[in-house]
């Protein structure tokens, strides 16, 4: 299948080289929200060295691989059909990784035992676009998070069709079990930022865990 490479500059050395696919589903290209979240990680706002990081709906793996270049031990996850692309991109950038990175299949809503104990960070870029996937995604988030897990969710606000309604429903459901805090735009990378791309810092509500 035809591929084309997207370069993502890094502050600390050579750019990431990410293969994308001209055909295939939404997971085959690097979306703007993934670029914004990857570059936010580089600001150092979240210490990643030697931290256990899981990326959900990784697609090309851009965000997770960036985290691995910052010293994190990363598992990038997506559906079976995206594993080959994830492996290609891990290999393309392995020489830049200072932590570790591996790819695994994780289907939202299914058993997550093999991903325990809870990671320090869960990364998500543009994972909110199918209404049918909201409940399985929320189940996976609840099953994966511990009291100290930080979830960074980056999404592009879309005004077309059902997108606003799906987004509203997602955050409404999320707030049942999680606390949300929007990261101000001035904390995003100064170049990779946009008024309609938001990063939300999400934690489990303390009341959900026995003290």
From TrEMBL:
Top-rank taxon: Eukaryota
Annotated transmembrane regions: none
Keywords: Methyltransferase, S-adenosyl-L-methionine, Transferase
Pfam family, one: Methyltransf_16
UniProt-recorded Gene Ontology molecular function terms: methyltransferase activity
GO biological process: methylation
Keyword Methyltransferase applies: yes
InterPro entries: Methyltransf_16, SAM-dependent_MTases_sf
Any GO CC annotation of this UniProt entry: cytosol
PANTHER family: HEPATOCELLULAR CARCINOMA-ASSOCIATED ANTIGEN, PROTEIN N-LYSINE METHYLTRANSFERASE METTL21D
Protein name per its UniProtKB record: Valosin containing protein lysine methyltransferase
Species this chain originates from: Calidris pygmaea
Taxonomic path: Eukaryota, Metazoa, Chordata, Craniata, Vertebrata
